[in-house]
Amino acid sequence: MAAGHPLQPVLHRGRLVTGKDNATASLARILGHDFADPALLEEALTHPSASLSRGRRKVNYERLEFLGDRVLGLAVADLLLRRFPDESEGKLAVRLSALVRQETLAQVGAALGLERHLRIGALGADAARAQAAAVANSCEAVIGALYLDGGWPAARRFVESRWAALIEAEPRATKDAKTALQEWAQGRGLGLPRYEVLATEGPDHRPSFSVSVRVEGAPAPAMTATAGSKRAAEQAAAEALLAALTEVAHDRR
To answer: Which residues span the domain enclosing 198?
Structure first.
């Protein structure tokens, strides 16, 4: 699939990076794949803050991240079906959510050492959190690059090698923040969390969503978060509200 692919190499510290780059070649070895099109891996490692113009679009990991998200979901779902043949769809869905969430991707990306290979610009005030998000996003992009370069076998082989142990280590997967907040509210006889999109900004290829969430009757006010997708913003807002509720409960002890 790599032959004739339009993605191009990117600049790193003023020079053109190719598959002969030692650091990138070492990462390819860690991934267990010999890239026919090394530019795919380079793109998967390029943060939007360091993107370059290629014609009418920006070259960074976002397009590959979009693809990798879908490939990862399918690969993990396939692994779960085979590993837990007797579990219900609901239980499998909870496992899947935990295994493809940003925290898990950041964990896998850190194990690969992706932070040492990222091309990245200024991250702003919360650099640590932004760095972790960048590693997670790049990890998904790497999966997308593997799929484009080596097809389903290459992508599936990588996911299986890196997620198999996580599946075994989490027989009962962690709930995502939205599920946890809903269960918190229902357990106290309150209404369901209410999410509201406050603003949508940015260009089509890089939107930004601001979302608020509140629980009527909860001892904490509504919380707001911003992310590149509505789903991610809702998750972040739910996490913020859960953290606020935990702090209130701690203060009341």
So the answer is: 177-251
**Domain's final residue, options 169, 204, 231:** 169
Total count of domains within the chain: 2
Query: Which residues are known catalytic residues?
Result: 69, 140
3-state secondary structure of 94: helix
Measured between alpha carbons, how far is 130 from 123 in angstroms, rounded to an integer? 6
CB of 137 closer than 8 Å to CB of 61: yes
Same domain? For 62 and 162 the reply is: yes
Q: Which of 169, 193, 215 is the last residue of a domain?
A: 169
Report the alpha-carbon angle 174-176-182, nearest 5: 115
Mean pLDDT of the chain: 82
- Segments of the chain with pLDDT less than 50: 1-20, 125, 171-173
Residue 130 counted as domain residue: yes
Closest by alpha carbon to 2, among 46, 42, 53, 59?
A: 42
CA–CA distance, 86 with 103 (Å, rounded to integer): 27
Which tokens belong to 84? Answer: 């837990």
- In the sheet with 208-214, reading across from the earlier edge strand, the strands are 194-201, 208-214, 223-227
pLDDT reported for residue 33: 92
Contact 104, 159 (CB under 8 A): no
